[in-house]
């Protein structure tokens, strides 16, 4: 069966790639910097990179974008502490994820762009790296890379496994393909208790399924990554200490303008209110700035000097700083939940002690969001008016803000220790 699935996949992959390539190139062009190390996507590396990724005792970790890279780095740190002899190749799909990975580059950690899963490319890269094992983070499994790793006799694991309703529906529709692919994995570390039966129903071997919780929501175990204090920047532009701050985190197109209009209304009753916008893709900063200015507000860019007094809005056009900015906020709106679907991580602001509101499209965090709402640890809104009412309520009631954060934090308890549990499973099932 697996031979037929592999033959069918490799017959279909070039066709699908050609169909999707125009849209992929358009997105890369819009985000900029698409030429950077473009050859790595086809398994073409400089001599220096080849030397670094072809070492012995290398673990290949793959993470799609910024969120997954943060999880990967946390797990890599734990693996390295357990075995200082290990080296790591960290592959990522997006330019923002790659930039974050490069910021943590070291003699034992080499970031690369993930190669296309085209059979000749996948086989060449796996033969070059010859990984001790392959660890995939959250959701992205590339069959040819997985098959080649297994063909070489190495083991593979999918950690911090996320199964959105949309993905589950797709996997179920193509179960005859997906089940043989996922069963090539030696281990799947699941986030939620209910995920065990969901994966079983998709044809996965129950012996490979282990409940570990989510590394993303685990604040125990390894020392937390240092978070920069951005309060001096707010002091420098005249934002008083104690002034309320509304922050839009990882926002998508359309959400920044909605937040700007809500902010203008709320300022009538909260004149000291300040707005911080952190777009999910910092490459959109220029377009976002233009729209906010058109809405009648003055904007300061995080990366540019501002000499016109106190701005109305701070636009954070950098990557990897969101956790620090959350600590400056009074209320946080979670992006990709109103004008786009999927949502972003709601646990980070909760960990920073800030209450969250979000739109109806939080599918990527559905279980956690459901728990938040059931316990009264978050507020869901459907439109701009809903945002305005929720923010107004929270700004006017400090006790409610504190209570919401406490209730939401309690929902994260199941994930405490997830990093160590995942590491234990990797050591016993993958590294052994």
Please, could you describe this protein's structure?
With 432 residues, the chain is of the alpha/beta class. It folds into 2 domains: 36-218 and 416-430, Rossmann fold, CATH 3.40.50; 231-411, Glycogen Phosphorylase B (Rossmann fold, 3-Layer(aba) Sandwich). The chain contains 18 helices and 14 strands. The strands form 2 sheets. A 7-stranded parallel sheet has the order 3-2-1-4-5-6-7, with helices on both faces. A 7-stranded parallel sheet has the order 10-11-9-8-12-13-14. Helix 3 packs parallel to helix 4 (95-103), helix 5 (119-129) packs across helix 6 and helix 11 (255-266) crosses helix 16.
Secondary structure elements and their pairing?
Layout (H helix, E strand, L loop, with lengths): L1 H30 L15 H7 L4 E6 L2 H17 L4 E6 L2 H9 L5 E5 L5 H11 L3 E5 L5 H9 L3 E7 L3 H9 L1 H8 L4 E4 L4 H7 L7 E3 L19 H6 L8 E7 L3 H12 L7 E6 L5 H10 L4 E3 L11 E3 L6 H5 L4 E4 L12 H5 L4 E3 L7 H10 L3 E2 L3 H12 L2 H14 L6 H13 L2
Parallel strand pairs: 1-2, 1-4, 2-3, 4-5, 5-6, 6-7, 8-9, 8-12, 9-11, 10-11, 12-13, 13-14
Key terms for this structure?
432 residues, alpha/beta, Rossmann fold, 2 domains, 7-stranded parallel β-sheet, 18 helices, globular
Which CATH class of the largest domain? Alpha Beta
Content-based structural category = alpha/beta
CATH level-4 homologous superfamily of the largest domain: 3-Deoxy-D-manno-octulosonic-acid transferase, N-terminal domain
Biggest β-sheet description:
7 strands, parallel
Q: Ends: how far apart? A: 28 Å
Number of helices: 18
In the CATH hierarchy, the third-tier topology of the largest domain is known as Rossmann fold
Portion in strands: 5-15%
Strand element count: 14
| Uncertain stretches | none
Q: List the domain count as a whole number.
A: 2
- Measured on Cα atoms, how large is the radius of gyration? 22 Å
> Residue-averaged pLDDT, rounded?
92
Question: Helical content, roughly?
Answer: 40-55%
What is the level-2 CATH architecture name of the largest domain? Answer: 3-Layer(aba) Sandwich
């Amino acid at each position: 069966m697996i031979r037929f699935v592999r033959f069918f996949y490799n017959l279909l992959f070039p066709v699908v790639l050609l169909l999707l390539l125009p849209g992929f190139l358009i997105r890369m062009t819009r985000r900029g910097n698409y030429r950077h190390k473009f050859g790595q996507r086809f398994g073409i590396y400089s001599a220096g990179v080849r030397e670094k990724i072809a070492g012995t005792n290398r673990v290949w970790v793959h993470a799609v974008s910024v969120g997954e890279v943060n999880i990967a780095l946390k797990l890599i740190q734990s693996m390295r502490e357990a075995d200082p002899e290990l080296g790591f190749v960290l592959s990522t799909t997006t330019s923002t994820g790659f930039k974050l990975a490069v910021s943590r580059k070291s003699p034992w950690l080499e970031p690369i762009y993930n190669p296309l899963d085209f059979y000749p490319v996948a086989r060449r890269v796996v033969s070059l790296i010859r990984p001790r094992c392959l660890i995939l983070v959250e959701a992205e499994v590339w069959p040819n890379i997985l098959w080649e790793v297994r063909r070489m006799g190495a083991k593979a694991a999918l950690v911090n496994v996320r199964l959105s309703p949309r993905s589950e529906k797709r996997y179920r529709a193509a179960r005859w393909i997906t089940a043989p692919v996922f069963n090539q994995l030696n281990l799947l570390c699941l986030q939620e208790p209910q995920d065990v039966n969901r994966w079983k129903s998709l044809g996965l071997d129950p012996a490979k399924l282990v409940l570990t919780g989510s590394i993303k929501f685990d604040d125990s175990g390894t020392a937390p990554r240092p978070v920069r204090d951005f309060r001096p920047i707010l002091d420098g532009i005249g934002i008083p200490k104690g002034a309320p701050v509304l922050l839009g985190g990882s926002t998508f197109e359309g959400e920044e303008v909605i937040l700007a209009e809500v902010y203008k209304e709320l300022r009538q009753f909260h004149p000291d209110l300040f707005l911080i916008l952190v777009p999910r893709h910092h490459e959109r900063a220029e377009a976002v700035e233009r729209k906010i200015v058109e809405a009648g507000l003055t904007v300061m860019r995080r990366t540019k000097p501002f000499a016109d007094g106190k701005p109305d809005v701070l636009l954070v056009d950098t990557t990897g700083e969101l956790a620090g900015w959350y600590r400056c906020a009074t209320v946080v709106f979670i992006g990709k939940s109103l004008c786009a679907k999927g949502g972003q991580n709601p646990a980070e602001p909760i960990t920073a002690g800030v209450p969250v509101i979000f739109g109806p499209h939080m599918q990527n965090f559905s279980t956690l969001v459901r728990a938040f709402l059931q316990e009264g640890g978050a507020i869901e809104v459907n439109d701009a008016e809903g945002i305005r009412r929720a923010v107004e309520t929270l700004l006017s009631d400090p006790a409610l803000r504190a209570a919401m954060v406490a209730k939401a934090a309690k929902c994260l308890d199941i994930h405490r220790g997830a990093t160590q549990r995942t590491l234990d499973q990797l050591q016993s099932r993958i590294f052994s």
